[in-house]
C-alpha cells in the first residue's frame, strides 16, 4: 500500500471514494458537487487529503485534514475531518495506515495534536481510534448551528 497527498490528477478516483463516504453517512449529494468540492480543496490548498492506493495503483481510501489553531494549547493542530476506506478492503489495515499517515503529517508540521469526531454508532471507527491512542473527550460537548 502507498499513501501520498492527493493532487488534481487523483480527483476522479477521490470523488468516487468521497461519494461513497457521503453515502455511508446517508448524505445524498450529486457527484458533480462532490467533485467540485474536492477540486476546490485541492486548488485552494485549504485541506490536506492523503490517498491510499494498493500495489496496482487502485485507490482504496482517504483521510482529509484541515489545519486550525488550538487556542488552549496556543499551537497549530489538525482536524481529521474525513476518513473513508472502500468496503472491499476494510479490515485489511488501510484505515490504520491512513490514520498513521495523518499522524505523521501532523507531527511533521509541528502540530500539537489531531482532533476528530465520529458518529456514536461508528463502533469500528471508535475502536480503531482508541487503539491508536486517541482519547474520547469527556469534558466538552460538540454543538452545531445549521445556517443553511
Question: How would you summarize this macromolecular structure in one to three sentences?
Answer:
This protein has helices spanning 11-24, 31-44, 94-108, 123-131, and strands at 2-5, 48-53, 59-70, 75-85, 114-116.
The assigned structural class equals alpha+beta
What is the ordering of alpha helices and beta strands?
EHHEEEHEH
Low-confidence stretches: none
Mean pLDDT: 95
Number of strands: 5
**Helical run tally:** 4
Share of residues in helices = 25-40%
| Principal-axis shape | globular
- Please name the fourth-level CATH homologous superfamily: Gcn5-related N-acetyltransferase (GNAT)
End-to-end Cα distance: 39 Å
Question: What's the main sheet like?
Answer: 5 strands, mixed
**Would you identify the CATH architecture?**
3-Layer(aba) Sandwich
Indicate how many domains the architecture comprises.
1
Can you lay out the helices and strands and say which pair or pack?
Layout: E1 2-5, H1 11-24, H2 31-44, E2 48-53, E3 59-70, E4 75-85, H3 94-108, E5 114-116, H4 123-131
Helix pairs in contact: 1-2
Report on the structure:
- By secondary structure, the chain is of the alpha+beta class.
- The chain has helices at residues 11-24, 31-44, 94-108, 123-131, and strands at residues 2-5, 48-53, 59-70, 75-85, 114-116.
- A 5-stranded mixed β-sheet has the order 1-2-3-4-5, sandwiched between helices.
- Helix 1 (11-24) crosses helix 2.
